[in-house]
Design a protein that fits this description.
InterPro entries: Cellulose_Degrad_GH3, GH, Glyco_hydro_3_N, Glyco_hydro_3_N_sf. This protein is of the alpha/beta class and 443 residues long. 42% of the residues lie in helices and 8% in strands.
Length: 443
Amino acid sequence: MGSSRNKFTSLLLMFCLVVLVRAEYAKYKDPKQPLAVRINDLLGRMTLAEKIGQMTQIERVNATAEAMSKYFIGSVLSGGGSVPAPQASAGDWASMVNEMQKGSLSTRLGIPMIYGIDAVHGNNNAYRATIFPHNIGLGATRDPMLVKRIGEATALEVRATGISYAFAPCIAVCRDPRWGRCYESYSEDPKVVQAMTTLISGLQGDAPSDYTGRPYVGGSKKVAACAKHYVGDGGTYMGINANNTIIDTHGLMSIHMPAYYNSIIRGVSTVMVSYSSWNGEKMHANHFLITDFLKNKLKFRGFVITDYEGIDQITSPPGVNYSYSVEAGIGAGIDMVMVPFAYTEFIDDLTYQVKNNIIPMSRIDDAVYRILRVKFTMGLFENPFADPSLAGELGSHVSSEQRNSFLSHFIRLDYSIFSDVSSSACRNTAKLPVKLSGNPWCC
């Protein structure tokens, strides 16, 4: 009798344990599940607050573990020069990122955050990182494979600091040398800029041929890339930064758009919108170019992110009608908003607009679906923390054999580019409206 009772009790306990395990099982946590199943399972569990949190990217100075968990923040960034400490080591960076990540993982659903940084010619915000020539110099090499190698090195040095997202490459086509950011452009020739999208493959890895349109990040030594600034930022009137690009549709599509085609083919994870306008309409509010063309026509499946406080720039002066800017930007198809400081205002405003049917829930779900797709693709749910074994990669490309390989390659290219320059080139043939005593190359 006692033996039967014990067997019954054991069976009951086993049954309860199975029920408990089943209750705790979540498909989105299972890496064996198909990607779409994981995304839909997680999206279906999320509240409005959790969804809007995923759409919010804040500055690192505000990203305490408490803020990350309270507002369900989906992403953090370092603005220019924003570092954890002067001369911070790779370990300092990784410790900071890990603390923020702990805040994200402590939430009900444990969705990891993604940390982004401007690694535009190497991991240039990090002390002792390898700094490579800027895009204008790399474009002059006409060597896409060299650019890819630089992307590979940059990815390792970004990952060394615990960061998994690089705001690069800039694929602007500079059409006016008066533009103060021409050095960020590979060329005035769209074909050259197209060729240099190999940087994306260096940063993210080589996407399989069937990945067209979908984000691809090939492992924990790679980072999510960002094609920017969509679109026409290099063609503004008189070269004035963030100004108006006055050009017909054919011109926009044949000059400024082609590099985005290549970026999407390479599986770029994100696209950043430009501060500039196209024929008077702010890019951050351009539904046709963001949703109808980029997302629907080109089948881009990653997420669209604003530039730094880009939502504010929709109005003139910036921020004068913030509610309108939020409605216009999110309605145009922006998925993640770079709102470094006034993030609670953004969260409150977007929440109000969704609850009052100004912005439909379907638009929010589309944005969050895209963000989650990138995070799952990156493997952040399985490996959310920094890999300490990569710390030694920071700066390693200036003190190793790879450095010598890079340098010798550049020396050969420099020779081939400049060896034909003769004294006859030192004549004043300047076409810009500036007064020169001679060719500026002749010091």
